[in-house]
Specification:
By secondary structure, the protein is an all-alpha fold. It is 75% helix and 0% strand. The chain is elongated, with a radius of gyration of 32 Å.
């Protein structure tokens, strides 16, 4: 059963604003046009024609100011918060590789990611995704190089750099049990992200590891 779409409320609101803007502009134009016509010494038909023309011009000017400026501001904010493809780089989606992994074909997915890395040598994403697969594999140490390489490629993206560092720390403190290498990454995190919640947490982990090392 087909449903009837609801009226576009935004369209109705926009039309209402435009009508109000034109009306206010026309009134202001008449109020300003009459004394201006008199000041110019106009009379009769010239007086009426100038006043009407001035009122119309003022109405559309006011409408432009009331509608155009907010729309421009809204458009600017939207581009900042939700950048379009024209202002931000296209993010490739590795759906085929993800599909292989989802079906349990981890070896096939890793081979596909290797191909993707060769085809997209500057894209950190296939390295991130392959590293995540290796993190949960029988040999998680293979993920170290990929996370490190992905971090290097994503150095301009602070969130991805932080993520790669955190995952390396997880590796060293978790399945690899290499606290000395974890300390290197923890110190890096503190240095690269000072004053952040993650940086403070890294400081606390460093202190805890040091206490355990000294037996305190």
């Amino acid at each position: 059963m087909r449903t009837i779409p609801e009226p576009d409320r935004d369209l109705g609101d926009g039309l209402h604003v435009r009508v109000v803007a034109l009306g206010c502009g026309a009134v202001l134009g008449v109020l300003l046009g009459i004394p201006l016509s008199a000041l110019l010494g106009l009379s009769g038909f010239s007086f009426v024609a100038f006043t009407i023309g001035f009122a119309i011009a003022t109405a559309f000017t006011i409408r432009r100011l009331m509608i155009g400026i907010p729309e421009a501001v809204a458009s600017f904010v939207q581009r900042m918060v939700f950048p379009s493809g024209s202002t931000s780089p296209y993010a490739k989606v590795y759906s085929q590789e993800q599909s292989l992994a989802a079906r349990g074909d981890i070896d096939g997915a890793l081979v596909a990611y290797q191909d993707a890395m060769r085809l997209n040598p500057e894209d950190p994403e296939p390295r991130f995704q392959a590293a995540e697969l290796l993190f949960r594999s029988a040999d998680p140490s293979r993920a170290i190089e990929l996370f490190a390489e992905a971090r290097r490629l994503a150095s301009t993206d602070r969130s991805r750099e932080l993520y790669a560092t955190q995952r390396l720390i997880d590796l060293y403190l978790g399945p690899l049990n290499q606290e000395s290498r974890a300390l290197v990454e923890l110190r890096r995190l503190v240095e690269r992200f000072p004053g952040t919640r993650e940086g403070q947490a890294a400081r606390e982990v460093i202190a805890r590891l040091k206490r355990r090392e000294t037996g305190e």
